[in-house]
Amino acid sequence: MTIEEAIREAEELTPDQIDRAVKIGWLGKLDGQIFRDIISTHERDEGTPDSFTPYDQYTDPDTALLAPAPHDEMYLFYLEMKAELTNKEYEKYNNSAVLFNQAYMKYAREYHRNHRTAEKGTHHRF
Predict the structure, then answer these.
(1) Nearest 5°: CA angle at 38, between 64 and 93?
(2) Where are the domains of the chain?
C-alpha cells in the first residue's frame, strides 16, 4: 500500500476535513515507529531499508508504506483513529485504537517470527 492509497481508502471509509499533509505526517510517524521498534531490531532482508526518513508533504505519494499486505490494514485503522482523536470522537477513537493495536501487534509478531533478531555487540570496551 502506498501513502496515496492509504489516505484515499481511509477517506472513503471515514470522510473528514483533515489536511493531507497532516495525514502524511501521521503515516510517517507510524512507519518511523515500525522501523525503529520492529525492523531495525532484526536482521535485514535484501530490499529492507537501512534507515528511515519521515514522510512530509514533499514525499512522493506513491511511496510504499513499510508494512506489506495483509498487514497494511493497520494504516487505515491508524488514520481513522488519529482523525477521530482530532475530532474528539472518543468512543469511535477507542474502537479504532483497539483495531489498530491488534493489527500492529499481529504484524510485529509475524515479523519477529519470520526474521532473525539482530545480534547486538558482545564486546566491551574498557
Answers:
(1) 75
(2) 3-114
Alpha helices, DSSP H only, in 14-124?
20-37, 73-86, 90-114
Q: Is there a cis peptide before residue 68, judged by omega within 30 degrees of 0?
A: no
The helix/strand/coil state of 46 is coil
Q: Beta-carbon neighbour count of residue 112 at 10 Å?
A: 13
What average pLDDT is seen over the chain?
91
Does this model's pTM top 0.85? yes
Residue 39 to residue 18: CA distance in whole angstroms: 29
The top-scoring range by mean pLDDT among 45-49, 70-74, 117-121 is 70-74
